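--- STAGE predict ---
source: upstream dedup step, 1 unique chain passed
mode: sequence only
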Amino acid sequence: MERHGDEVSVTEKEASNKTSPHGVRWVLGISLLAALIAMSLVWIIPALS
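--- STAGE serialize ---
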């Protein structure tokens, strides 16, 4: 990070602070699957009766 008067200059890596934990992918995938199953059950169970 460099400072030029009132202006601050940062690199792309410093600005994004990119970290990609794999746990987030698992949570998103499992929650998507759970939502799909729940919505399917809400639709299928009344259709059977």
